[in-house]
């Protein structure tokens, strides 16, 4: 499965896999795809360094990339404490009462919240990049808009391609104008931050909007048939994420969460502002319902919402509070019904792709 | 473009085109596809008879079908007046004040509302079928759930295949259990009544759910690349609708509406209950905004909402009130940018399909 982009990056198959887990990223690259490690959870540069060392050691010289969350708009001199101060007390009370209703215990004394928004702040993302540029990464992706111009330039100086996620053709053109190299067209069905335009419509619109820049199709892709569909729509590859969450290499923080993902249908996700303040697709839970309920206080804008719920999310995850336990995931969760190795999932993608090509050639009278 | 289903129906290409306009339906069949005439607007059986006569005369013996809106659940002895009586006065007042705010004139005395919900009622749909079964239609589609068992049986006695729209795998299985022959998997991006699962995810789920019954992919399809994608996902054909609205053969009631469709982007639709009480994708207007506004009275359930707004919709259309003027249409509206004949649109679909097959074969290393 070779496109201009996959050839340029030196990968066997035009399948990109985004994951927060180093073992999954490395396994995707080893399987013949392009593993992309999500950096947002690394608040300490040394932790990122440790995991990039590991990935580097376990990819046998095969290419891989890094995904950061870097706002294009710079907010000078604003600290986490400044943002904390902007959160209304009524919202804090809503968090407390919702957790109390479900008997969610407090974190043990001295244990900090594991889930922080600090990775979303520019200075943290920049310290991640200072680490990352010491490694032979081939791709730098940004999940929130185009990266700042100096970051794009620095990446290019290191021969690193820059990708940015887009939810509309207009958004994709903006990225192209900013000088990025690859657009990830993130359809409505995708997990995490996403817009309202579904992949079937968005992919060809993005392709047309930024031609000749390559587009990766993201959202709803978990089988080889879906890979074939995305490539038929003009994409130069697929950007997958959700399907790696239930692989045996994934280090999910909660066994119960893995079980919920394996059991969920495609109707069990919701596009909600509950997690970050921007619409992000995730498992629907009583937690997302509470935030989306018109009779509640509603969500705060990014980055306030993320800071507001950070400790609550840590508590829900630590104590595996079933009714509230969720995670960002796409509608493809309905087909994630068994735990398999990254290699097995990957081989199913490439085999299913070949089957889809056979079928479509028969339909086209070319078999 | 031949699948088992297209062969069974005797059409050259597995492209189904739903349209309220007889001239468009006939032109789709003549171009090599399968035209499906929407019956919902025919309240008088004689009008339907006249138009089916016309289609029959203009399809040169090629196959075509009919789409009705027939609720599976029968409500005995309820008249339109009974339903009118269930509408709260506050909702009627909201209609009046919203129209007044935009200076929408009254209909001339004696002119009845053209847009009625009566086509949605079972007795009307049954009188349509009494007419339709006299014609050699090859397909009967139902837009609201499975048709009643006796209707399916009657269709089968006439060698007519029965199709039903589904927005989820569970919904598709219910149709299969009811004895229908074809599932139309209606993705989130589709125009008209639709669910929340996007085509990329829904199509293969529906295919798996009802195998070996054929599935048609609906939602987001307006180019040959999208046809190829839908077939790669396992569909035995595509069900298109929106793209025929801006053809030269379409008899749109308002020139201004055609202009709005040609100008709209894929971000200009909304899935709203404003028109019928069930979520239906349509152009976003100040009319849909008013109904979706949390500070307003909100919409009523089907069929109350449709009855409540019927006259208002007629007035908005008659006087082409720009801010309020809309129509059901899918996200593909963003690619409907020029008026072309049905034949041109159809030939673009088949040519684009061949291009997509060429491209995907190159990617797969089979070119």
TrEMBL record, chains A, B:
Entry keyword NAD: no
Superkingdom of the organism of origin: Bacteria
UniProt KW Ligase keyword: no
Enzyme class, broadest EC rank: oxidoreductase
Family matches, as SUPFAM superfamilies: Inosine monophosphate dehydrogenase (IMPDH) (SSF51412)
Any one GO molecular function term: oxidoreductase activity
EC number of the protein: 1.13.12.-
Pfam families registered for this protein in UniProt: NMO
CDD domains: NPD_like (cd04730)
Keywords: Flavoprotein, FMN, Oxidoreductase
Protein known as: NAD(P)H-dependent flavin oxidoreductase
Taxonomic source organism: Streptomyces monticola
């Amino acid at each position: 499965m070779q496109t201009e982009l996959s050839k340029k990056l030196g990968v066997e198959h035009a399948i990109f896999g985004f994951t927060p887990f180093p073992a999954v990223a490395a396994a995707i690259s080893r399987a013949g795809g392009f593993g992309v490690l999500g950096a947002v959870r690394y608040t300490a540069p040394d932790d990122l360094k440790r995991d990039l060392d590991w990935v580097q050691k376990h990819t046998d010289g095969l290419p891989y990339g890094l995904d950061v969350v870097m706002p294009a708009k710079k907010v000078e001199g604003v600290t986490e404490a400044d943002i904390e101060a902007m959160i209304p007390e009524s919202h804090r009370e809503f968090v407390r009462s919702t957790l109390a209703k479900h008997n969610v215990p407090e974190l043990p004394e001295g244990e900090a919240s594991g889930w922080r928004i600090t990775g979303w702040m520019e200075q943290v993302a920049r310290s991640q990049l200072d680490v990352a540029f010491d490694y032979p990464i081939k791709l730098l992706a940004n999940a929130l808009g185009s990266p700042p111009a100096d970051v794009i330039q620095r990446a290019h100086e290191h021969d690193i391609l820059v990708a940015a996620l887009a939810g509309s053709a207009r958004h994709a053109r903006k990225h192209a104008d900013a000088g990025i190299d690859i657009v990830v067209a993130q359809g409505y069905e995708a997990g995490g931050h996403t817009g309202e335009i579904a992949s079937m419509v968005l992919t060809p619109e993005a392709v047309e909007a930024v031609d000749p820049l390559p587009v990766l199709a993201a959202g709803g892709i978990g089988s080889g048939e879906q890979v074939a569909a995305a490539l038929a729509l003009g994409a130069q590859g697929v950007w997958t994420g959700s399907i790696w969450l239930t692989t045996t290499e994934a280090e999910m923080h909660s066994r119960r969460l893995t079980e919920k993902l394996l059991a969920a249908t495609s109707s069990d996700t919701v596009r909600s502002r509950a997690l970050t303040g921007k619409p992000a697709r995730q498992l629907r839970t009583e937690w997302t319902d509470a935030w989306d309920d018109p009779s509640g206080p509603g969500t705060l804008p990014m980055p306030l919402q993320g800071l507001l719920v950070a400790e609550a999310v840590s508590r829900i995850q630590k104590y595996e509070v079933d009714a509230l336990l969720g995670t960002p995931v796409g509608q493809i969760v309905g087909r994630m019904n068994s735990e398999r190795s990254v290699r097995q999932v990957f081989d199913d993608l490439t085999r299913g792709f070949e089957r889809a090509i056979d079928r479509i050639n028969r339909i086209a009278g070319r078999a």
